[in-house]
Amino acid sequence: MSLTLRTLDGGEVQVAPEVLQAFKAGFRGPVLTPDAADFDATRAVWNAMIDRRPGLILRCTGTADVLHAVRFARQHKFELSVRGGGHNIAGLALADGALLIDLSLMRGVSVDAKARTARAQGGCTLADVDRETQVHGLATVLGFVSATGIGGLTVGGGFGYLTRRFGYTCDNLAAMEVVGADGALRRAAADENADLFWALRGGGGNFGIVSSFEYRLHPVGPDILGGAVVWRAEDAAQVLDFYRRFTATAPRETTCVAVLRIAPPAPWLPPAIHGQPIIAIFVCHSGGIDEGEKVLAPLRAFGTPVADIVTRRPYAQMQSLLDATQPKGRRYYWKSNYLAELQPQAIRLAIEHAARMPSPQSSVIFFHLQGALNELPADHCPAGNRDTAYVLNIGSAWEKAADDAANQRWARECFAAMAPYSTGGAYVNFLSEDEGSDRIEAAYGRANLQRLAALKHEYDPENLFRHTKSVLG
Fold first, then answer.
1. Cα separation, 215 vs 461, whole angstroms
2. For the whole model, what pTM was predicted?
3. Nearest to 225 by CA among 280, 161, 172, 169
4. Using an 8 Å Cβ cutoff, are 47 and 431 in contact?
5. Are strands 109-112 and 80-83 parallel, antiparallel or unpaired?
6. Rounded distance between C-alpha atoms, residue 382 and residue 150, angstroms
7. What is the pLDDT of residues 402-448, one digit of tens each?
8. I need a surface site. Which of 58, 125, 383, 451 has the fewest CB within 10 A?
């Protein structure tokens, strides 16, 4: 079949068979054309709302493949997109007719336990990194769903159960190996290409492809105290008021995530509660187990819980506890804001809108992050938003395309109602496809965004890496 790819000027070009064959001679990974048997399965990303068809998929096996792919795109001025874990809500990995550089086969992790560092290839998931670091009782700050790719998570900032202790994911980077738009390989660190290192810690995919990350590690686990406590939704006002007061004094080793949703048919929930509205608090205490028992005792004793699965468990298991709530192949639409505090009026509105959610898979979530991230200045890196205490995520999720309008409308209405209680900041990785330059500025702050734009012109003047949340406005 003839192969057609989009170009950077918006046109299309047919790729001659001999051109593709010459490329393949220097590329080790699979090269998938649209007629390949596994093309559709490979292009599928987590959010089923994103259904785009790239013109060609290059499945890299290492840094040499990434270099070869970028140089190929640069030479022929092909439009390109980049995929790591493919878990991004906006589906930034895919662009119709473009060249897709796919890192998802690059999942190697090496750990230096003595130096407390880990080097992970750009296609790794959170589970890949946690699996290897936990062999040594070490961990870095990663997200809440183990199938998430580390690439997008990290260059967009990143937060998780360890953020209260150690800051954003990007605050825990020691170095990165980056393939730039000029086809050159660079090391970015505090002492080498420092401006690029700054930009990549929150600036997203605007500056190149990170083929490997080097993280600083911390003693965590292998066992922690964690799980979830669940109450009926009729108790939500009291539970969230307790959550507000509890998180204000909890030690940094304790992170709590409050979730308003419909109870799924999970085996750890009583059958009588399945399909009923609930309020759940997922909790991870990453310090000592005995200390954690004392800290969490008031939470577990509050009100009349219908379920309590807080127990000693492997940290890696805690990292996957929310996986079942976010399966690949559903339709997702999110709206999100940072909060400096959890005000009573915001709690009331969250409960009111949760009661009207049109899908049993949707949720309103409060992530508590206050702690180490607040101790760094706003310009430490682009992730910014150092005044935050919580992240609000209105996570609309459903099964059928016919229900798109109703579910998106619910998320937007809830977001609008909650907006007056936000800091005005936004987490770039939670921005949906339809959010524009004003929300990009909310994610970075004006000064950081201006610095990012200047660096974008320096490192990628032709905007080769354009399928991302752009810093160019």
1. 29
2. 0.95
3. 161
4. no
5. unpaired
6. 17
7. 999 999 999 999 999 999 999 999 999 999 989 989 999 999 999 99
8. 451
The tokens describing 78, both together, are 């092909």
Mean pLDDT of the region 251-277: 97
Q: How far apart are CA 53 and CA 100, in angstroms?
A: 9
Name the packing angle between helices 236-249 and 344-354 (round to 10°): 140
| CA angle (120, 99, 460) in 5-degree steps | 70
Beta-bridged to residue 228, according to DSSP, are 282
Beta strands 56-59 and 80-83: pairing type? unpaired
Report the candidate in 129, 101, 157 with the shortest Cα–Cα distance to residue 215: 129
Running DSSP on this structure, what letter comes out for residue 334?
E
Residue 260 near residue 363, CB atoms below 8 Å:
yes
How many CB atoms are located within 10 Å of the residue 446 CB? 9
Helix (H) or strand (E) holding 289, with range, is helix 289-301
pLDDT bin (cut points 50, 70, 90) of residue 461 is very high
Residues 351/329, Cβ–Cβ less than 8 Å: no
Distance of CA 167 to the CA centre of its chain: 15
What does the angle CA 324 – CA 329 – CA 332 come to, to the nearest 5 degrees? Answer: 85
Whether the bond into 420 is cis, omega within 30 of 0: no
CA distances from 92 to 23, 81, 166, 204 (A): 25, 7, 28, 11
223-232 and 173-179 strand pairing:
unpaired
pLDDT grade for 2, boundaries at 50, 70 and 90: confident
Could you tell me the sign of the dihedral formed by the alpha carbons of 384, 386, 390, 392, in that order?
negative
- Residues linked to residue 118 through DSSP beta bridges, in sequence order: 111, 215
